[in-house]
Amino acid sequence: MAFPLPASLSPSRVSSFKSCPLAFRFSTIDRLPEAPSEPAVKGTTVHRALELLFMEPPAGRTRARAAETLAAALEEMAADPDYVGLGLDGAAAERFARDCTGMVDRYFDLEDPAAVHPIGLELKLQADLGTLKVRGVIDRLELDADGELVVTDYKTGRAPRKEQEQERMAGVHIYSMMVEKVFGRRPARVQLIYLGRDPQVISSPTSDRTVAGVEKKVGAVWAAVERSCATEDFRPRTSALCNYCSFHEFCPEQGGDPSRAAEVAVALGRA
Predict the structure, then answer these.
(1) For 157-171, 222-236, 237-251, which range has the lowest pLDDT when averaged over its residues?
(2) Do 201 and 192 meet the contact criterion of CB atoms below 8 Å apart?
(3) Of 68, 80, 179, 196, which one has the greatest count of Cβ atoms within 10 A?
């Protein structure tokens, strides 16, 4: 019996399948619960703080206001199931807030928010690519000084090595493709703003060639997902990411039993 196809893919799901098809199956097909991760929850918090900052008029986008929007984001997160699931004690919660503060502060070292002209914040988009629906949320869609569209994605993890940069740009290029399909206008540029300990901006122009390349790569991933679902063949791929995976008990590379995943999914009402 074949696995059901997912209803859509997002840039993160495309990356997930490429990283480890089996983990993709557990997360996207079986929809098994994943333990919250502190880096991911920090990322959510910082993204929310910057979203609130850019709701202010340009003159109001100051460091002082950013401290207030971060405080508001932290207050919102206090009731969020992922944050609660971290089980942070008082000292750990203070460290969490301090790390978020550092990332928001570093943002101001990379660009002047008053000079940014956002036209979409946390913008939800859906585009069709053949039989595939591609969905995603763009952190920031803006107009540059020349009136050209720019797609910006914030990253709170470690910045990539030089040889990894183009690989890391793949997701934001997918967002650019989606913008063109939805609005009929291709962004001139995409950029990643890294707010971790090695803060930097990585920018790349777009072209007809980059869009065609993205469509080809996403189409190839979708075809591979279709084959894997039809044959029930999702293979594990070991890497450093295994250290952060929530599915060890189901992964044969970790001594687990993948057949149990379907049983758990049924028990949780997710299959």
Answers:
(1) 157-171
(2) yes
(3) 179
